[in-house]
Specification:
Order of helices and strands of chain B: EEEEEEEEEEEE
Shape of chain A: globular
Structural class of chain B: mainly beta
Radius of gyration of chain A: 13 Å
Largest sheet of chain B: 6 strands, mixed
Strand content of chain B: over 45%
Helix content of chain A: under 10%
Number of strands of chain B: 12
Number of strands of chain A: 12
Distance between the termini of chain A: 37 Å
Structural class of chain A: mainly beta
Order of helices and strands of chain A: EEEEEEEEEEEE
Largest sheet of chain A: 7 strands, mixed
Oligomer: heterodimer
Number of helices of chain B: 0
């Protein structure tokens, strides 16, 4: 069965803290994604990666960075968390073949206080 | 640039009644289209997808969607709704650079 695992489901962090959100997939997919989900806005793409050590900015990259040192792992980093980054973060992966299904993790709820 | 509009923020439907969720997209080329469902506190699950060919697509849980190029629409339907269909539904359009753009979502409430 397809599996995208986000290790932290619920986090509470203080303003200014550095935050790491980890995502692991076990399907040998080339492409991985980080989305942010907010009510009324749907899912917005933060960053994606199409290969190890490769990354591209999505629609809302400001305040975020990513790391992909291994094919199965894609990390989202908030260098200095702010309250407007309180949100649900969804990791996803898919094969390289165009149009193929994206598989999502269960999400990480981040609250910044 | 691609975009997706889901005109209905919230729909309430009686159990056993039919359901139709609207989705309109904007994309210059032939799109890849998807419908996902999200239960509270969970990630997104794929219901169905359209790449090419037959414009009526069958998915899981009894859902279907019809691609209408002339109307730039990909509406989702189910003939008879069950209480377990209460969830949030997202339409998405894919482009050739592998990204998906999502609509804002439609929340479905099912009343007994």
């Amino acid at each position: 069965d397809v599996k995208v695992t986000q290790s932290s489901r619920y986090l509470v962090k203080r303003t200014g803290e550095k935050v790491f959100l980890e995502c692991v997939q076990d399907m040998d997919h080339e492409n991985m994604f980080w989305y942010r989900q907010d009510p009324g806005l749907g899912l917005r793409l933060i960053y994606f990666s199409y290969d190890v050590k490769m990354k591209e900015k999505g629609d809302i990259p400001e305040g975020y960075s990513v790391s992909r040192e291994k094919k199965e792992r894609f990390s989202l980093i908030l260098e200095s968390a702010s309250t407007n980054q309180t949100s649900m973060y969804l990791c996803a992966s898919r094969p390289r073949r165009r149009g193929d299904t994206i598989y999502f993790g269960e999400g990480s709820w981040l609250t910044v206080v | 640039a691609q975009s997706v509009t889901q005109p209905d923020i919230h729909i309430t439907v009686s159990e056993g009644a039919s359901l139709e969720l609207r989705c309109n997209y904007s994309y210059g080329a032939t799109p890849y289209l998807f419908w996902y469902v999200q239960s509270p506190g969970q990630g997104l699950q794929l219901l169905l997808k359209y790449f090419s060919g037959d414009t009526l697509v069958q998915g899981i849980k009894g859902f279907e969607a019809e691609f209408k190029r002339s109307q730039s629409s990909f509406n989702l339907r189910k003939p008879s709704v069950h209480w377990s269909d209460a969830a949030e539904y997202f339409c998405a359009v894919g482009s050739n650079d592998y990204k998906l753009s999502f609509g804002a979502g439609t929340t479905v409430t099912v009343r007994a």
